[in-house]
TrEMBL record:
<keyword id="KW-0238">DNA-binding</keyword>
<dbReference type="InterPro" id="IPR023772">
    <property type="entry name" value="DNA-bd_HTH_TetR-type_CS"/>
</dbReference>
<dbReference type="InterPro" id="IPR001647">
    <property type="entry name" value="HTH_TetR"/>
</dbReference>
<dbReference type="InterPro" id="IPR050109">
    <property type="entry name" value="HTH-type_TetR-like_transc_reg"/>
</dbReference>
<dbReference type="GO" id="GO:0000976">
    <property type="term" value="F:transcription cis-regulatory region binding"/>
</dbReference>
<feature type="domain" description="HTH tetR-type">
    <location>
        <begin position="16"/>
        <end position="76"/>
    </location>
</feature>
<keyword id="KW-0804">Transcription</keyword>
<protein>
    <recommendedName>
        <fullName>HTH tetR-type domain-containing protein</fullName>
    </recommendedName>
</protein>
<dbReference type="InterPro" id="IPR036271">
    <property type="entry name" value="Tet_transcr_reg_TetR-rel_C_sf"/>
</dbReference>
<dbReference type="GO" id="GO:0045892">
    <property type="term" value="P:negative regulation of DNA-templated transcription"/>
</dbReference>
<keyword id="KW-0805">Transcription regulation</keyword>
<feature type="DNA-binding region" description="H-T-H motif">
    <location>
        <begin position="39"/>
        <end position="58"/>
    </location>
</feature>
<dbReference type="GO" id="GO:0003700">
    <property type="term" value="F:DNA-binding transcription factor activity"/>
</dbReference>
<dbReference type="InterPro" id="IPR009057">
    <property type="entry name" value="Homeodomain-like_sf"/>
</dbReference>
<dbReference type="Pfam" id="PF00440">
    <property type="entry name" value="TetR_N"/>
</dbReference>
């Protein structure tokens, strides 16, 4: 049994490495040329494999895009969950770190590319059909809601504010359009933008400490 397992493991490793290379190359070409101008032929040529080999891994260009979206969102969610579970930090400190992380993602060209693609009706339908949006969005919002509730329980955040309202406001801070306006047009550094947004947001949801009589 062991001798037959080794070749399969080696072949599987080769398959995974080839798939990762195809994804990396597809991302580069998408960012250079745009999604609609990119062809499977060019991706295959850059990888140095036959076009049919690409189709063995990804049946269509749309499947390539979905795989890239899945890879990146899973990585971001993993990092968000790691921040949320870090010991010795307050809920506010964790949320500020997550805000920095998410704004850092906006700085990446591929994120803005995915955003523009996602805004096209056909791709939105595709992602929703493949259930890519719902599951990942649910993981992220659940994690953020738990942190907001944690902050309320610790007396950091106003207990009278519904977590759904605080969550909605937090998510609205992370906007590609806002990023492009503040960083691209106004010339602010991403770290500056996060600092200003965090100041406004956390002052707004802070618990009121009434003086005792």
């Amino acid at each position: 049994m062991p001798p037959s397992t080794a070749p399969r493991s080696w072949k599987e490793k080769q398959r995974q490495e080839r798939e990762a290379l195809i994804l990396q190359t597809a991302e580069e070409v998408f960012c250079e040329k745009g999604y609609h101008e990119t062809s499977i032929d060019e991706i295959a040529a850059r990888v140095g494999i036959a076009k049919g080999t690409v189709y063995l891994h990804f049946p269509s260009k749309e499947d390539l895009l979905v795989a890239l979206f899945r890879r990146d969102t899973e990585q971001v969610i993993s990092e968000v969950e790691a921040i949320a579970s870090s010991p010795g930090c307050s809920a506010r400190e964790k949320l500020e770190a997550i805000l920095h992380l998410l704004y850092g993602e906006l700085f990446k060209k591929r994120t803005r590319l995915f955003y523009s693609i996602y805004n096209s009706p056909e791709m939105r339908i595709l992602l929703e059909k493949k259930k890519e949006m719902g599951a990942h969005w649910g993981q992220l919002t659940h994690c953020l809601e738990e942190l907001l509730a944690e902050g309320q329980a610790a007396g950091e955040f106003d207990p009278e504010l519904p977590t759904s309202v605080m969550l909605s406001l937090f998510l609205n801070l992370v906007s590609v359009r806002g990023y492009e306006r503040l960083v691209g047009q106004e010339g602010l550094a991403p770290a500056e933008v996060v600092r200003y947004l965090a100041r406004i947001y956390f002052k707004g949801i802070a618990a009121e400490h009434k003086p005792s009589c």
